Amino acid sequence: MKMKKLLILLLPVFAVMGLIVFNACKSADKNTGGAVNAGLTLPDGFIAVAVAENLGSARHLVVTPQHDIYVHLAGAKNGKGILVLHEEGNQTTLKTSFASYGGTGIAIKNGYLYASNNTEVFRYKLNDKDEVINPDQPEKIVTGLISKRMHEPKAIALDNDGNIYVNIGAYSNICSDFDPQKKGCPILDSAAGIWQFKADKLNQHYGDGIRYAGGLRNVVGLDWNQQDDQLFVMQHGRDALHDLYPNLYTVHQSAELPAECMFALKKGDNAGWPYVYYDWMQNKNLLGPEYGGDGNKPADPKFINPVAAYPGHYAPDGLLFYTGNQFPEKYKNGAFIAFHGSWNRAPEPQAGYCVVFQPFKDGKPDGKWEVFADGFAGTAEQKASGRAVHRPCGLAQGPDGSLYVTDDVKGTIYKITYSK
Amino acid sequence: MLMLFCLFFGGLYAQTKKPVSHTGTTSSVARGKIVYANICLACHMADGGGVQNMNPPLIQTTYVLGDKTALIKIVLNGFKEDVEINGQTYSNNMTPHSDLKDQQIADVLTYVRKSFGNKASTVTMAEVKKVRAANVTK
Lengths: 420, 138
Prior knowledge:
The complex is a heterodimer of chains A (about 425) and B (about 140).
Chain A: H1 2-28, E1 46-52, E2 58-63, E3 68-77, E4 80-88, E5 91-98, E6 106-109, E7 112-116, E8 121-125, E9 139-142, E10 156-158, E11 163-168, E12 193-198, E13 210-214, E14 219-225, E15 230-235, H2 241-244, H3 251-256, E16 260-265, E17 269-270, E18 276-279, E19 284-287, E20 308-310, E21 316-321, E22 335-339, E23 354-358, E24 360-361, E25 364-365, E26 370-373, H4 380-384, E27 392-397, E28 403-407, E29 413-418
Chain B: H1 2-17, H2 24-44, H3 62-65, H4 68-77, H5 102-113, H6 125-135
């Protein structure tokens, strides 16, 4: 009897002790590699591991057939902006690093590695093992691109006809600062679009390229769709509908709108920024409030519609068409989108911070998107406040069909694989 | 655990000790909090911590704690300069808020200067009025 009482009295003590031990174990897992699936939640059958951590601000990446990973850092670390990791058995070692500049864009095509900073695009010849031959002597492909504080990164993609596509983001939220009289936004001739340049011609400037598609506020995730032989881009939609037009938009509408849009581009297309925005709840392209819209007036049909739309402010930073054979059949030729996560949803909880899968059929989005990988942000509180621990940014496909995701807060590289 | 206890009870103690005053400053802070929630929070966040690489924090920065004239001008004229704020640069642009009344600007800046761990003096309506008058030349 006495013993029992004592036990009951001591129970809370044991509980506390247990908690302390448990917490100690948890904090011993300093690296995400220790957590199940590196802290991510995934569909059944998928596994995630952190193959690299603490790299710095890891933006876009490519993986070679020899399992080398080229990662572009937003800012050069110790004077090097591109890291080359070699992966073996789900672990990586730093093989080398080069490039004196930070940036986002990186791609491999026809024996060259292409990389961009905020104003230029370079390329490096690769040897037969896809290693850079002359890291200190890149060829400058494009130079003198506009970069004015906002939306500076120049994300890139290449087609199969010797062209490179470069995003030149608008250096404004909605052009009001440059178009106070609403006569027409004057910055569209040299920004807010995708420019096409020759992939093998040196020192090209604006005049040597063409404005392939305009009216795109800012694009970070873009990829060439091999099935359609067509460029797909993800636009970052405008901010502050409620802050600027409290009479037309509620706080909630402003958090959800406008949609983050996926566009399938053809040469000469105009997506309509700053004049229009897409409302994913009404499924309509609408006239923007700066130019006479009221939340219902339709956009001029001369502006293209998105092929798919996602909730507001999710910030799509990576787009990848999955062509591998490792994942189940439904993923083949569909799109993965890395959503960096919002900041412009306050006072509502922030959202995004996930990798989404968008099913495709015959080169067109087909059916509703689904969250594929989640949990990057950390706890619900960390996510809601926007103080995310990790934020997905770049996507790449490995030689065996694994999916790689970068995180640009801590510099983690996640590798996601499938086994039946 | 012990520390938690101390924090908890310490906090309670501090709260009960806080004088409930109706001075001008207290109400200015209360009004400023509302202006902050309506205007500034969208970018600088509820905790004043800002958004990494985009919008700077309003915690212990030289702008927040420093010269009031410069601070008032930031709200009146907006801010888009390539400056380092506590060793970081920020890529978003702050839009002007000259449509706010003198009292609202005084309130919101007083709130900011006394919140998020900041401890700086109040900003008065008269100070805002003076800066706005001299600012017109722009």
